[in-house]
Amino acid sequence: MSTSQPPAEADPPPTRNQISGGVFFNAVIQGRGITVQLPPNITPALSGMPAVSPGFTGRDEELRELLGLLTPGAQRRQPVLVTGLAGVGKTELAMQSAARARDEPGWFPGGVLVIDLFGYDPERRLAPEHALHRLLRALGVTGEHIPSDLQDRARLYRSVLAAFAEQGRRILVVLDNASTAQQVDSLLPTDGGTATLVTSRHILDVGARLHELAVLDSSASTELLRDALRQARGPADTRVDDDPEATAVVADLCAGLPLALRIAAALLADAPARPMASLAEALRQSHTRLDELSREDRAVRTALHLSYRGLDDQHARLFRLLPLSPGPDLSTESVSHLAGLDQRQVDRLLQDLARAHLVEPGHTWGRWRLHDLVRLYADELGRARAEEDGHTSAVTRLRHHYESMAGAAETHLPGSYFTASPLFGCRRQALNWLDGERANLVAAATRGIAFTDLSTAVLNAPRSESFAYPVPAATQHPLTLLFRYLEYRRHDDDLIMVSESAVTRSRQEGDRTSESVALDGLGVAFRVGRRFEKSVQAHTNALEIAEELGARHSEARFLCHLGHALAETHKPGQALKRYKKSAKLFARMGDYLGEGVALTSAGLALYLMRRYDEAIDAHKRALAVVGRLENQGGKFEALNNLGLALREAKRVDESIETLTEATSLAAELGYRHGEAMALSNLGNAFREAADHKKSITAHKRAVAIAVELEDLHMEGKTLGNLGIVLGDAIKFKKAIKALDRATSIFVELGDSHEESKVLNNLGSTFVEKGDLGKAITTYHRAAAACARTGDRHMERQVLRNLELTLIREAISEPGSTTELTTAHPSLVRRGHASLVARMLSWRHRRR
User: Fold this and answer.
1) What predicted TM-score, i.e. pTM, was given to this entire model?
2) CA neighbours within 13 Å on the CB side: how many for 833?
3) Residue 644 near residue 681, CB atoms below 8 Å
4) Greater confidence, 604 or 627?
5) Residue 460 pLDDT grade (very low, low, confident, very high; cuts 50, 70, 90)
6) Are 353 and 318 in contact (CB under 8 A)?
7) Tell me, what DSSP letter sits at residue 347?
8) Across the chain, what does the average pLDDT equal?
């Protein structure tokens, strides 16, 4: 947008700044006509609370004490630590307290935020930085706004909680299953208003109010047994009262542990004719045969053993197989693949195991989890009978299930080159599956289930990147599929963790080829997470190994990826050197697709360097190379990029012709994402030709496709382009509406880079409209977005537009150069004193 047209002189409206309501996670700059962009409405973790037991009993006093500590008051809050033996009911008490506190009017209007730290499970234990990432996402903070450093994450997390508390939306945080103070320290709020419940088997030194949970006494144990039986069998079941002596023996042998007592009750519920004395005798015999260190552990183990002993072969085998999944829970569908059984049959078996308290229902219907003690017990049994149960085949079936479903879901992601799989009816279904299985997929990729041999993997860049290129279906790799999903959902931590795990595993195995591929994938992960210097280092390390091994094909590919990272660090010249070398290596090997990738990447680097004629030549060479293949996707990419370079070289007619061909090719291939990209670029070419009507039509078609694909990022980009041309056509109201919507989208996505670009154009639109006050406010917002991303190049553009607009506002008032530069000293510092004088001179001549 041009800012050269001076506005009509008018008295500026008085400046009034008022901000009320809402929670702000970023800087707010006050100026005229404040517009505040709030985060999306969220309900922090309410849907993630585990279901509480309807038969909660024996803890009335403890419940009253905890609720008393959670009651809103003026005193500064300290964390509450609920500690006690494994199986004593710490989590149940915490969740019962949280649920009741949540339902009390005005106590915690912001909701309850729950996270299981898995502190006593070495395979699933959450590091503080990963826990903070999950908590921040649950609080509505988008991926791009989450820092990489632990301390920075803790500061942001505490600031967000404090902001909610200040706005009357106080939150209760529940940190379940912590093992050490170090695991908890960074997760504790510090605002004095946010309440925190922590559960642990240890007394942690975290400055908390201690609540030690003892085992149930005989009376409470008896009441729990009675209540559990009545829940299962109704009031007619009187076995607890019919034989109080046997009941006392059962309660004693269960050591007052609720977990053991519930398992005992489940055994009785499954056999309504079984006398209490029979169970007491069975517990006595099992108890003496088990040699464990502590009486309490022995109680749980005894109850588990007795319950397990009552299972038939099918139930027992399924129980032993469940720990093979490294994730926090399992869907019924996944369990059916693990066991190799029909899903309806598996559902029935799981329901039976749940009634025996050997498995627990998950947070949502159709998902199942194991208590950590039960998991350890089942894993012990499973290891002893691994060959008999077919562990290897079970893991293979589960792996193939994850692979096939992840691959099918990937075809529904924006930017996929492949036909949408019929396994999912739509993108929403595919994303729901991926969201539900994310923790399991990440765990499978990092702990225990290796998808395939990394030495054969091709970890390609995500589809959404401008340098990405179509990949033949034969080279698709499950880790790549997971990679694309995590990039799309902006789960950067998981993305990097998966890649780092691959590097560690390959080094442990001493496989240098796998290590190079894994390092290359890590470089891409760092690039997606916008940690560009680390990306350059990882790709450099991968390249050094490939050169050392003489792996020319890997060397060529890694050179290309290193070029992408260098381009992101604003070093297109260095990137160009890598692309050229990559193209030569691919050409020597006769890999036309690889050569085309490198050539079109070189063209994009030349484009960034404003060497448009050379960029055109590179893209034409890429077209000639990929023309030898049947890969029409490669031809589309080259055509699309060629059209961009032709437009910047002012060869507008050729650009329109080329982009029209690219649009038609994408439509012919059914590549809707590419069609939208080409249409948007075509719209920009028509704008360059001053054909506003055709430009608007092309952009509207692009927006329509983006909406159809439910691709918010593409929708934001195309709306931004549409807003610019609408402004050129003097349709300011429609232009501002389009640009406002684009801004909202990028705020929602947490994409501050695109947000800054759109806001810059929106500011220019306000200038053209003559609304300098709103333009100044909008430029301030754009500058704040640039500051968040560290994009100095864009920030300089925004600040220059802001300064010019301030000048235009200032010269509409009587004054002199001295007065103006005194009012705006930053303009003089930035070397605009002479510009100020010229603008004042223009103003006086106009008068």
Assistant:
1) 0.65
2) 8
3) yes
4) 604
5) very low
6) yes
7) H
8) 80
Dump strand ranges (E) for 349-458: 360-361, 367-369
pLDDT grade for 611, boundaries at 50, 70 and 90: very high
> Which DSSP letter does residue 172 get?
E
Contacts 24+ apart (CB under 8 A), 664-670: 665/632, 665/635, 665/636, 665/639, 666/636, 668/632, 669/632, 669/633, 669/636, 670/419
Element (H, E) at 678: helix 672-688
Q: How many CB atoms lie within 10 A of CB 295?
A: 14
Structure tokens at 5: 């047209």
Three-state SS sequence of 602-636: HHHHHHHCCCHHHHHHHHHHHHHHHCCCCCHHHHH
Rg (CA), the chain: 32
Contacts of 621 (CB under 8 A, 6+ apart): 599
Give mean pLDDT, residues 239-268.
86
Q: In terms of DSSP bridges, do strands 367-369 and 360-361 run parallel, antiparallel, or are they unpaired? A: antiparallel
The domains of the chain are located at 1-11+751-847, 46-212, 218-309, 573-649
Q: Where do the DSSP E strands lie in 650-768?
A: none
Could you tell me where the beta strands, DSSP code E, fall in 120-260?
A: 171-178, 195-200, 209-212
- For tokens 């902001």, name the residue: 163
Name the packing angle between helices 258-270 and 218-233 (round to 10°). Answer: 40
CB 558 within 8 A of CB 520: yes
Give the integer Cα–Cα distance in Å for 621 and 633.
16
CB 798 within 8 A of CB 786: yes
SS3 of residue 91 by DSSP: helix
DSSP secondary-structure letter at 248?
Answer: H
d(CA 475, CA 17): 57
CB under 8 Å, gap of 24 or more: what pairs does 306-311 form? 306/263, 306/264, 306/267, 306/282, 307/263, 307/266, 307/267, 307/356, 307/357, 307/358, 308/358, 308/377, 308/381, 310/267, 310/270, 310/356, 311/356
Domain range 46-212, its CATH number among 3.40.50.300, 3.30.1330.60, 3.40.50.2300, 3.20.20.150: 3.40.50.300
The rounded Cα 235 to chain-centroid distance in angstroms is: 48
Please report the pLDDT score of residue 25 as a whole number: 47
Q: What is the dihedral of CA 209, 214, 219, 224, to 10 degrees?
A: 90
Dihedral angle of Cα 296, 302, 305, 311, to the nearest 10 degrees: -110
- Residue-wise pLDDT tens digits, 737-780: 999 999 998 887 777 888 999 999 999 999 989 898 899 999 98
pLDDT at 137 over 90: no
User: What's the token pair of residue 449?
Assistant: 């289930």
pLDDT of 259-293, one tens digit each?
888 888 888 888 888 899 988 888 777 655 443 33
Residue closest to 811 by CA, chosen among 803, 802, 820:
820
Task: Read off the pLDDT of residues 336-371 as tens digits, 9 standing for 90 and up.
Answer: 999 999 999 999 999 888 877 778 887 778 899 887
Distance CA 682, CA 677 (A): 9
Enter the CATH code of domain 573-649.
1.25.40.10
CA 524-537-561 angle, to 5 degrees, is 40
